[in-house]
Design goal:
The complex is a heterodimer. Chain A is an alpha+beta fold. Chain A has one domain. In chain A, strands 1-7-8-10 form a four-stranded mixed sheet. Chain A has a four-stranded antiparallel sheet with strand order 2-9-6-4. In chain A, strand 7 and strand 8 form a beta hairpin. The longest helix of chain A is centred in the last third of the chain and has 20 residues. By secondary structure, chain B is an all-alpha fold. Chain B folds into two domains: about 240 residues, no CATH class; about 180 residues, no CATH class. Chain B is about 60% helix and about 0% strand. In chain B, helix 7 runs antiparallel to helix 8 and helix 12 packs antiparallel against helix 13. The chains are: A alpha+beta, B mainly alpha. At the A-B interface, loops of A face helix 4 of B.
Chain lengths: ~220, ~425
Amino acid sequence: MPSTTRRRTLQRVATLLAGVGLAGCSGESSSTYPPETTDNVAFDPESHSLRSSDPGPILWAGDRPTTEPGTGDDARRRHWTTRRFVADADDAAAISIADVDGAADAREFLDATDYDAATVYIDQAGIRECFTQDLCHVRWSETEVDTDYARYYRDADVACETDARDVLVTLIRIPEALDPDDVSSYGSSRGSGTCERSNEHLRRRRNRSDDGGAR
Amino acid sequence: MTRLSRRGALALLGALAGCSGANPLDSESVPPELDAAAVRAVASDSAPTVPARLPVDIGSDHLAATERRARSLLDAVPTSLGPDEIPNGAIREKLRDARRRAAERLSASAEASTPFERLLAFADARAEARFAAGAWRAIDAGLTREDLAAEAETVRADRRALRERWRYVGADPVEATLVHAAIEDRIVSGRSHITIGEPRRYRLGNPLGVGEIAEEVERARVAVEDAAHCYDRLTASLDDPVDLQPRLVDARRRLHEAFEDEQDALSSVDPREPWRIDGVDVADTPAAEALEELFRPVDPSDDDDWTDAEPAEALTWAHASFVTLEAFLALRERVREGETFAIESAADVNAVRTAAIEALRAAEESPAEPMLTRHATTGLADQLARADEELSIEGGSVRASWLRDDAATYLTVAARARATPAVSRRVAAALRAA
């Protein structure tokens, strides 16, 4: 079992990504992203979300990160935007989850995943306090993962302020056993339309690609 | 103005650097930097305002009624919406912003110098206030999008009824054209379309989505009401309500033919670089920007068929098209003679702005077809005011290249204003010809 290696990899990838954020991904993706016809898509995939207005970490591997809140915007932003993989049961066991709403369900989600057939991709990002989002789809290949969300207003009776931000962690079950070592490119998009429209749009694009390829 | 431009301490930097905003292929030098205070001073100098007018006697009763409606919609939204009323701060902010804009438009109506300007201000105020009122009722009383369907249907029926009885009547064909263009804009264009049920900016369940539909219903409602009022006032003023539609359609055809002939003057212009003139280098100057902006709407390769437009609107297009064509040709001639209108100092900004203001004033004072001319210069004065506004927020020092767009706006305003009176005479002559 490559658990130790995997755990190390997990930490390395998480650390790397914490530093790179979104900007670091864009340069590579255009050259390495597989064509629409060959990448994999899961529409409305199995997922679980955790949300917190506390700037401390929600989910981590190994020792709890000691980054104190309020150490500057850059540090906070790096903290907000991180991605990691859970690729086997040992990885899952190494994950700790803060005491936030839904923590027990998130733990259950990790433990119930069949890692021979699936990988949990953990996508963490900041979100304005008055908004929430639905996961529309995840696309992946051996080297890339790309998520798409629909962002929308929370209900009028949810107390929130326009300039406040929460951290939102989305655990996504990708139905393929990926090797995190091979994944080097990440993308994430957030639209203001519904997931229904976003997914339909992607389906049509993929159908057009398929038709084009058949000719 | 001379005093202001002289006061500007102009920093003409000769520093050379390889990574400036300038195109290194065009120049090796950094564009000069200007003192923002001097630029702001230029832009803050008074400029003419040309209030919108409509040659129809808008009744004070109608103005009072639409104002009452605007105020009642505004009053339906509490002035101090806080977290107790709307806990979600983003939704609360949207409501408050719309309410604030409505109140601002109502205040503007008090300053308006013509009844038509007041009518426009009330229409805007009603739409903004209705957004806020609709969203607030959704939160406070459970109003839904579907609850607005009956009112939408009433507005649609009113619009149908108006369209059925509406004829292109008038005494003076020029004035009638302007009134009917305003009516077309309100009941033929998309302004009074209401489409409940189609995908929207906000999701079902979001009170802002209810506000969005409420705003659309109000926009349509005020458009139909104002159009009906203008039409009724026009017909009431006529002893003999002759239908001028054949005359308008004929003028549209003849002007379009003439315009196509005159577009031949553009045959030597490269549509990709309409500013390029043999032997003259104006790339990246305000002159180039202005020529580009003036050329686009009259580019002969764009098939812009006026005959698809409504008769009165097409004639206002005809007016604008001739003005733009004349403005392009005149500015191009000046560039050929060596003018680039390069901006190297606040005094240069002042010069192009002053020329625009003088041209606007001259057009405004021109005796030729004042209604048609002012219809055009109202928009030109607005463009000038927007350029002024942009310059008025410049801070620190300003790189000359950043001012290119605003300087180009002053140039296009000047060129169009100069061309306007003659074009007004021409369009009026086409309308009045038997």
